């Protein structure tokens, strides 16, 4: 057991060291110990998936029907019915298999990563490749990937509630414990499945995969929630309702048919076929397919959906609340201004390249101008400021073949770059002035402090001293300063000086710069900083009475595509809200630049929000576009207020403390690159590029998926209504069966088969992001859909009856009559499929060839139909006869009216809509908020 040994013997036993394993050794161990994953329950095999297609009651009824026909000597009917059952099964299987693949893909994309040290180098690898002996780095928000022994820690606290139920995080230590210490008290161990709540540390892995103590709890991130969506639920209900109605009608007509003298077997088979055709039994499955395929398209647009039902929510989003740094902006920080010794300097240079100058002069410009004077990197004030900036810092800078790269937080890296411009290299500083303790940054404290010993000091009054360096939000740092480093001396910080500094902060923030302040405090010998790390001395006791050393102002340019994305949101009736820990003025300046903050909009800070009563806040919430200096907990309040007003809220987050907000939002969105494991687990969707624009693409896909699902469902509905009406009216009006049972089954198979699949891949149309968000209260099938169903279903019926009357008048035999009606229905439904590419736009305005899948689907169906009508063997099976060229002509002309009339209606309503829309745009540019 590793908890009772000191670190060196743990290393010995695990045959590893501080530098970690070498790659070959790691590979060997991976083979020996297996992957760091849990043996999942046996996956649903392909065979099982196939068999599951035949488990529905309707299929069972069909099988019984075929047995009955076989027993009564109707072998052909029996065979054809069985064949259609088989085909339906294959089709269902292919669809579900594709959806299943899409979900599997997501699972592999969301599997977690860990940072390991191998051969002395840090690198990120999939957690499944970890082996015993690997050294891993742990930081706030990480899900612990395997059981491990702590070898280094800075205030490391681990949330073990997933194991113990205890919600207070456990402080971890590196010391060995006596043998026999109970598992819960082994505070030098961390366990797979728990999460880092605070601080950071290093640990050596002792057990992986199924060997971990609580292995079964890990691996949360790789799971995709597949609970049924509200849409599927309501479709289920809808399906049952239609099913019951159909059975009543069909049974009634079948009995009537027998009274009218039709053979009972015919009526039985026909009743079964019609019921099968009319009951939308496949709907929920087809919806899953629609969602699954949509989800796969979203992956291409950098959005990983973790909970399938949220795809629906996504399409209905009213408000997107987004973090600023990294999501709306590029998170590529560059220090452009310094405020030291009572003056503002500009810092030149590009990106992370550590070359640049410190200039006094024309602050309107960023480059060197005539008349500017250089301030040497040796200036003592500059050095003290930048020394703190580089030491109180966890990031670093590297020169690689293709340029300068950073590791760590870009805000901190920008400071490392600025220090390097003054000749202060972080790597060298770290060696010379080692860090003894630290108080890590948190979004709540908005500051960070380190304790360094300045042995062979920088050649000034800090030499050989133990110094605390702090950096953080200006008001926080200033609040803890009583002195200032000015004109080479430490002086008292007067209220006037504080005022002057605050004005500087405002001036820098006004230029959309992110402002940070710096301070330091030398300690007397005898002070032991470890007591701060261990919590013995509270942070406030050391982060007080500090010396102010200066300010930095850094630029974080907005992401280029974000402006357009925000405009798209506006057109789509979606409000964008910025939520940031940054300064109010900086946040407002950037929000204005991006088009988030408009003339009459409000900006609220966290403390202003605290002072508002719930009611007061709710009255304002719709007008607030920017929340600045907020804590993660404020996000919850914003969500609640918006939800109370009936809005569907999407919220982004990346930190551990964002998890509650991500859960509470209708759509919790985590950051794939910078996000912590904990935030990802709490989210419904992960952005693989951390980019706001990807949220907007996802919303568009979400709307499109919903639109496509709705369209193919209504398509099916129109077809089914047509089929039932035709048969009903023909029997009642002419005492004729216009379609044979097998023909009805065939129609059902091909209309429910290929075209809906093709409709589910219809690309987004131009109007998708110009409409208001869907009202979630409103069901899928509204009056509009029912009208369309009855209208188009009625039209197909009229066409069929015309053919029927024509055939009767011409004295055609019943076979021929049925073949003609049969062909008409199939063709008419193919024309109808084109209608449902969009419920409002003409197919020609969408581009006739933009959905190639549908063209192939329709052509395949027509070829199949030609075979059924002309191939002798199939004629025998389906009771068809050949049709003449002119008969085809008439049928085709009739069937095409299904398409032509809908196109005309779309044209007329489209004109009306656009007139209405113009008025709307004139009256208010924001339809909803
Ligand atoms: P967003 O919420 O938009 O992602 P943010 O990154 O500005 O914004 P936080 O990370 O909570 O939000 O930072 C809040 C403030 O804390 C910053 O404005 C800055 O002043 C300070 N800060 C940020 N990073 C550090 C750090 N590493 N050390 C010390 N202070 C920091």
Short summary:
This protein has 929 residues and is of the alpha+beta class. Helices cover 48% and strands 17% of the residues.
| CA-based gyration radius | 35 Å
Q: Tell me, what is the CATH class of the largest domain?
A: Mainly Alpha
Small ligands present: adenosine-5'-triphosphate
Helix tally equals 33
Q: How can the largest sheet be summarized?
A: 11 strands, mixed
- Strand content bin: 15-25%
Work out the count of structural domains: 4
Look at the helices and sheets and give the structural class. Answer: alpha+beta
Protein architecture, described:
- This protein has 929 residues and is an alpha+beta fold.
- It folds into four domains: 131 residues, Calcium-transporting ATPase, cytoplasmic transduction domain A, CATH 2.70.150; 298 residues, Up-down Bundle (Calcium-transporting ATPase, transmembrane domain), CATH 1.20.1110; 151 residues, 3-Layer(aba) Sandwich (Rossmann fold), CATH 3.40.50; 213 residues, Calcium-transporting ATPase, cytoplasmic domain N (3-Layer(aba) Sandwich).
- The chain is 48% helix and 17% strand.
- It is built from 33 helices and 28 strands.
- Strands 10, 11, 12, 13, 16, 17, 18, 19, 20, 21 and 22 form an eleven-stranded mixed β-sheet that branches. It has an eight-stranded mixed β-sheet with strand order 8-28-27-26-9-23-25-24, sandwiched between helices. Strands 1, 2, 3, 4, 5, 6 and 7 form a seven-stranded antiparallel β-sheet that branches.
- Strand 10 and strand 11 form a beta hairpin.
- Helix 4 runs antiparallel to helix 8, helix 5 runs parallel beside helix 26 and helix 29 packs parallel to helix 33.
- The radius of gyration is 35 Å and the shape is elongated.
- The two termini are 60 Å apart.
- Adenosine-5'-triphosphate binds next to helix 12, strand 17, strand 18 and strand 21.
């Amino acid at each position: 057991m590793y908890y009772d040994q000191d670190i060196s013997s743990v290393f010995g036993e695990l045959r590893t060291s501080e530098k970690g394993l070498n790659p070959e050794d790691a590979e060997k161990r991976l083979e020996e110990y297996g992957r760091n994953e849990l043996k999942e329950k046996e996956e649903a095999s392909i065979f099982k998936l196939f068999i599951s297609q035949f488990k529905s009651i309707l299929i069972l009824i069909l099988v019984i029907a075929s047995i009955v026909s076989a027993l009564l000597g109707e072998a052909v009917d029996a065979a054809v019915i069985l064949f259609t059952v088989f085909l339906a099964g294959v089709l269902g299987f292919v669809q579900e298999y594709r959806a299943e693949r899409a979900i599997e893909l997501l699972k592999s994309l969301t599997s977690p990563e860990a940072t390991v040290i191998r051969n002395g180098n840090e690198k990120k690898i999939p957690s499944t490749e970890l082996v015993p002996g690997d050294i891993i780095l742990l930081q706030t928000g990480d899900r612990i990937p395997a059981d491990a022994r702590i070898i280094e820690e800075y205030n490391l606290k681990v949330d073990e509630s997933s194991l113990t139920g205890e919600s207070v995080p456990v402080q971890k230590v590196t010391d060995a414990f006596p043998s026999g210490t109970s598992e819960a008290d082994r505070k030098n161990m961390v366990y797979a499945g728990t999460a880092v709540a605070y601080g950071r540390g290093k640990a050596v892995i002792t057990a992986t995969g199924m060997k971990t103590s609580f292995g079964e709890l890990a691996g949360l991130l790789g799971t995709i929630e597949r609970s049924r969506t509200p849409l599927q639920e309501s479709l289920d209900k809808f399906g049952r309702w239609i099913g019951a109605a159909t059975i009543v009608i069909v049974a009634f007509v079948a009995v009537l048919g027998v009274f009218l003298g039709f053979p009972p077997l015919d009526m039985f088979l026909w009743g079964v076929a019609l019921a099968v055709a009319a009951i939308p039994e496949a709907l929920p499955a087809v919806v899953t397919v629609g969602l699954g395929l949509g989800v796969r398209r979203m992956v291409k647009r950098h959005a990983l959906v973790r909970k399938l039902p949220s795809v629906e929510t996504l399409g209905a989003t009213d408000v997107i609340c987004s973090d600023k740094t990294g999501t709306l902006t590029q998170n590529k920080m560059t220090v452009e201004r310094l405020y030291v010794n009572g003056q503002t300097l500009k810092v030149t240079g590009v990106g992370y390249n550590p070359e640049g100058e410190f200039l006094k002069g024309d602050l309107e410009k960023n480059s060197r101008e005539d008349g500017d004077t250089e301030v040497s990197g040796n200036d003592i004030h500059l050095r003290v400021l930048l020394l703190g900036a580089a030491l109180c810092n966890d990031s670093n800078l590297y020169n690689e073949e293709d340029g300068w790269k950073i590791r760590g937080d870009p805000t901190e890296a920008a400071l490392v770059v600025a220090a390097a411009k003054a000749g202060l290299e972080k790597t060298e500083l770290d060696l010379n002035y080692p860090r003894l303790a630290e108080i890590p940054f948190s979004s709540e404290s908005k500051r960070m402090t380190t304790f360094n010993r300045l042995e062979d000091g920088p050649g000034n009054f800090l030499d050989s001293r133990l110094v605390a360096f702090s950096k953080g939000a200006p008001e926080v740092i200033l609040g803890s300063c009583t002195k200032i480093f000015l004109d080479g001396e430490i002086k008292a910080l007067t209220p006037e000086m504080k005022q002057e500094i605050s004005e500087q902060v405002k001036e820098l923030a006004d230029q959309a710069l992110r402002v940070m302040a710096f301070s330091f405090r030398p300690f007397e010998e005898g002070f032991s900083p470890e007591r701060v790390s261990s919590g013995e001395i509270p942070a406030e006791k050391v982060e007080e009475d500090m010396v102010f050393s200066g300010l930095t102002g850094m630029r974080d340019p907005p992401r280029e595509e974000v402006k357009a994305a925000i405009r798209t949101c506006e057109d789509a009736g979606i409000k964008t809200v910025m939520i940031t820990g940054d300064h109010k003025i900086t946040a407002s300046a950037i929000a204005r630049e991006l088009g988030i903050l408009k003339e009459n909009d409000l900006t609220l800070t966290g403390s202003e929000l605290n002072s508002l009563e719930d009611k007061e806040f709710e009255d304002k919430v719709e007008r607030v576009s920017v929340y600045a200096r907020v804590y993660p907990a404020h996000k919850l309040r914003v969500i609640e207020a918006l939800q109370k007003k009936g809005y569907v809220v999407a919220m982004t987050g990346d930190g551990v403390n964002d998890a509650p907000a991500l859960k509470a939002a209708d759509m919790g969105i985590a950051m794939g690159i910078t996000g912590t494991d904990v935030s990802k687990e709490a989210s419904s969707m992960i952005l693989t590029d951390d980019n706001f624009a990807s949220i907007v693409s996802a919303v568009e896909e979400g709307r499109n998926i919903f639109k496509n699902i709705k369209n193919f469902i209504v398509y099916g509905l129109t077809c089914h209504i047509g089929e039932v009406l035709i048969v009903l009216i023909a029997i009642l009006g002419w005492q004729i069966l216009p379609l044979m049972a097998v023909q009805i089954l065939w129609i059902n198979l091909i209309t429910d088969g290929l075209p809906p699949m093709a409709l589910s891949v219809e690309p987004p149309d131009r109007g998708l992001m110009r409409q208001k968000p869907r009202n979630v209260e409103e069901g899928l099938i509204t009056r509009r859909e029912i009208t369309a169903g009855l209208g188009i279903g009625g039209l197909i019926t009229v066409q069929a009856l015309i053919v029927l009357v024509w055939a009767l008048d011409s004295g055609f035999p019943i076979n021929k009559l049925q073949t003609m009606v049969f062909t008409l229905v199939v063709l008419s439904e193919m024309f109808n499929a084109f209608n449902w590419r969009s419920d409002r736009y003409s197919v020609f305005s969408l581009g006739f060839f933009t959905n190639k899948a549908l063209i192939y689907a329709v052509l395949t169906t027509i070829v199949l139909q030609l075979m059924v009508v002309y191939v002798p063997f199939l004629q025998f099976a389906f009771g068809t006869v050949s049709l003449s060229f002119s008969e085809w002509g008439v049928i085709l002309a009739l069937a095409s009216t299904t398409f032509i009339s809908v196109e005309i209606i779309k044209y007329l309503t489209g004109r009306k809509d656009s007139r209405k829309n113009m008025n709307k745009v004139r009256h208010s540019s924001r339809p909803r908020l």
